[in-house]
Please model this.
Amino acid sequence: MGSAKIYLSSPHMSDEGYEKVYVREAFDTNWIAPLGKNVNEFEKEFSAKLGAKCAAALSSGTAAIHMALKAVGVGQDQERIDRHNRDIVFCPSMTFSATANPIIYQNAVPVFIDSDEESWNMSPVALEKAFQKYEGKVKAVLVAHLYGLSADLDKILALCNHYHVPLIEDAAESLGTLYKGKYTGTFGKYGIFSFNGNKIITTSGGGMVVANDPETSEERIAKIRFWATQSRDTARWYQHSELGYNYRMSNVVAGIGRGQLKVLDQRIAEKKNIFAFYQRAFEGLDGIEMMPVNDWNQPNYWLSCITLNGSVTPLDVLRALDEENIESRPIWKPMHLQPYYSECDFISQCESDPVDGELFKNSVCNSVSEKIFKQGVCLPSDTNMNEDDLERVVRIMKKLWR
Ligand SMILES: *Cc1c(COP(=O)(O)O)cnc(C)c1O
Model:
């Protein structure tokens, strides 16, 4: 008898059935539409949970990034559309492509920033180099918090403030993660979240953008809602003074989100247990390290990731698990190594940095993001797993060390 498939991170509805209650209410009131009570309440409950000023529920995390970039003015000057004079946005190289793609939607140019070993996220050292190189041309810094680990926000914000450039946080993977006691997504001018199927909570698909400016947030979010519903002017007829988008969340989907929000803390606790299980199980195995959880970080542990720098390689692990019907996957392949983005600039934290250069003496890597990509693996982190499933994963992996 074959064993059941183990997933990386699959949807996990509440045992109590909260989601169904809200979805049923949408059906009972025939509010099967974009907008409606669930959307309004989801926005309020979400902001309240994070301590954000206000929020707009959108059709995806990608749409949320697009709207946040537009809101800080990326690509707004149409006369600057000529190729050599476009707005620049700093963006981590090691991330999912959905972080970077909306920069292109806005006719801007991404400059990819290396990661550091302490956070696996945007390196403040590389960011500073980038600011020196592109001073005066940068319209926004887009930081991501991968796998539920938070970037070093104090250092990044200090640089943004010094150069007067707004920060946007891609917190798609870090809902519920705390940086020094405060939720990620609430530090930048805007924070964005995703409720895609494999995220820590899901609505089947969806996103949220929060604004964190104490004075102007209501206004800014209202503007985003306006763009996201086709930019309809207040007029008797369909009149449009601005380009519109169809990016709002549906009322049915928002019902799932309201239910899922109630179990967010529970999911974080479960994800943390999964991480701790792996950590204990791998003690004493040669060349294996858990992703970095440092002092400033209280992750949501969305995915448990490891790096391997001994005789067992990431490919060995991916293959061994795959053969047993267990899903795992590589770390995000850096954007500067993607064919689509091959012409974009990349700022490594290693170049002309002899101390960090030492790290790569025996390897072909010339950036931290590349090193993490080559050594990293995301292990099954599904909260639907039980202890037997976790033991199965670990048993299969440990065979590789014999
Ligand atoms: C999932 C994800 C997104 C995109 O969210 P969607 O809701 O799928 O559009 C953006 N950035 C990161 C880092 C993600 O993991």
